[in-house]
Amino acid sequence: MPFEQKKQGNAIRIATLGHFLRQWLFQLGFENDTEIEELAKVGDIGGPENRLKNEVPKLLLGLGTGGRYSAESMRAVSEFFDQKEQPLKQRLSGKGKDIEKEVDTHVEDPGLEAPGTFEIAHEEDVLKMLEDGDCSGQGNVSEVEEIDPVNTELEPDEPLDEEVARTFQQSQHPYTHFLPIYVFAAQQIEVSGFLSSDSEISPFPEARSNAAGFWRCGHHRAKFLAESVWDLKRSLHNTGSGLEIRVGLAGQVIQELLNAFKKASAEVVAVWMTDEEGVEEKREERDVKEAAERAGTEFKLWTDEKYYIDDRDIPFRNPKDLPDVFTSYRKKVEPLREAPRRVLRSPSKLPPLPPSIPSQPHPFTIPTTVEDTIAKLHKPLDPNLGLSNPPTWPTKATSAHPFHGGETAGQERIRHLVTSGSFSTYKETRNGLLGLDFSTKLSSWLALGCITARQVHEFLLNFEDGKTDLGKGVHGYGKGENKGTAAVRFELLWRDYFRLTTRKFGPRLFRIEGFKNDTASSWGYPQKDKESQRRVTRFLEGTTGTGLIDGSMRELFLTGYTSNRLRQNVASFLAKHLAIDWRIGAEWYESCLVDYDLSNNWSNWQYVAGVGNDPREARVFNPVKQANDYDTQGNYIKTWVVELRSLNEPQIVFQPWKMNDELKAELKLAGTEWIEQPLRRIEFNMGRNAGRGGGRDGGKGGKAGASRGGAGRAEGGGGYHGRGRGEKSRGQSRKGKSDRANEFVDN
Ligand SMILES: Cc1cc2nc3c(=O)[nH]c(=O)nc-3n(C[C@H](O)[C@H](O)[C@H](O)COP(=O)(O)OP(=O)(O)OC[C@H]3O[C@@H](n4cnc5c(N)ncnc54)[C@H](O)[C@@H]3O)c2cc1C
Predict the structure, then answer these.
(1) Which of 16, 212, 423, 620 is most buried, by the most CB atoms less than 10 A from its CB?
(2) Which family does the similarity line name (predicted)?
(3) Which of 604, 611, 620 gets mutated to test ligand 1 (max ligand atoms within 8 A of its CB)?
């Protein structure tokens, strides 16, 4: 047997076989130990003696917590492994080498049972040998050079490839097992439902918000999150791995695991974690890092890759250089269609879990089904989230967000948006209020990392270029970027932008003065004065007396979703019309939204409250004008505010306080506080009074005459440079009527 062949085949086994090694090498034709040692040197994988002794499993811990779980980072991890595991024949295909044949000759030895990880290590070694070109003098140099194309496949700017390359340089393989961990983070999600018995007491304070004391993660997101975690567990299981679910604080969880593994004489070689913006998230990273360092374990933070434009492609390094205006940022990264990096491949196989995993420490127990997980997350939550008169589900109303958590459902949703043509029509429909497909509803999966923005982009690309059959026959298929697909990209960039603002401004995200450091505005604090408290209660319960706001607040509470258009109106109502501490609204959204996302929520609230990144000064939404524009017949409001269902006149649906006594008596609404005494009487008249903002209570209104156009509305062929308003296509042009109304453009 020529030495070169032996070298490839046997290097495979040296990396992994432990006590089978020697026997097998001899079977393969090695004559003596000296020859085996020589082989080991060639592979730069340490002497076989070391390998033979090296029976201790080496573990890698991969960690996700709270809302930061990122399928993309798992994919990154998997790609890392996949690359090594990929059969050499694939890697070398096109290079004219049938290396598989040579490898198989040795790997498929029937006399040996190879555990699942063998191939990974084996190819690492082979690739290492090939890459190093370090075989000179050890055998047939010319043959090694010939089969050395692997280097050319490494992209130096790819952290994963860098990581692979780094690993290749090591003399030993860094790990044999991989343990993915998900932590329900106790500071963000109430975990007392996981207590092993009712007599136990949680060691953690209740996961309540700072200003108003709301549960930070309400029912809707708790369910979606549990579904997402279990979907991840399933898909990891399908790759030969799994997912360890924990509750607690990330740093503590890792500390306990490291201690337990140490006790069991298992060496943990590294802890990997996805990085995130946000104060708490940074604290978690610090705690985990410290725990790893204390144990002498490597800690690695993976860049979160769930965003549209990769961090490595942002045209500035210092977060402070992020422009304070979105449009300026957008211009720096256009054209958007060219901007994202490729999607990382999905896992096909991952290293196995450690043979023994320490269980969740007292006093918590981890549920064994998704249903039980949901039940445990829901258990401590008051179903009414503290409201005395919570909205109740109206007959015949259906949720605009009936979706399940997890990558599976997220991918399914993207496919649906392609095949239904909803991506192509998005620009016209995105301001809708009722139904499933007026907007993408992708935010919840994006927020949890179940899907990524660049996956969405890739689906769009394939559709636009007609690369796959998905969407064949649908309007726009194979015809390049259209207004709808461009608008989706545009919106996805907002997510990126707000995340970068969090990086830039840090804790200022949560300060009432906002990014602008606005100390001039005065706010009502419900914790301090009764009147503000009364107003906030009615705001939360959806009984402000302004139709659009009440519809949205009830929908939010009941379904966990409300559209972007409505979120803008609601935020503006609380911050501008009621002048209440906007953080109360942000916290309520955090509690109720399925798609809650730290940066998107808090930055959007700042933006609308006028303390964030909105370059337009003193912008206020008039919710009556907006109802006239976007809910022309009042159907949305009537869906959620049942009391108003039998009204025919939309203007009264928008402003129920305008109802006359007769009508009130007929509808049995006489004496109803929220109808008779709205929190604000926001005048808006079609026709000659248009443009008069404010109202009896001195409503703030905005600059009369603010035009609909706003800056940056120009639209070009396939491009999309501003947020158009879908209403014109719905036949609602108001030429000569409300052009000068006190309405305010959206972001
Ligand atoms: C006060 C307020 C609070 C918000 N809180 C959140 C939040 O916690 N989580 C969240 O994901 N979004 C938030 N948004 C942004 C936006 O309202 C939602 O992303 C959108 O309504 C989700 O529905 P969709 O996926 O159907 O959106 P689509 O209209 O289909 O948009 C496509 C995607 O673009 C992104 N996007 C759209 N609009 C915005 C925006 N204004 N800012 C940032 N990204 C955007 C989202 O990822 C969205 O999924 C908030 C907006 C406001 C005004």
Answers:
(1) 423
(2) Belongs to the DNA photolyase class-1 family.
(3) 604
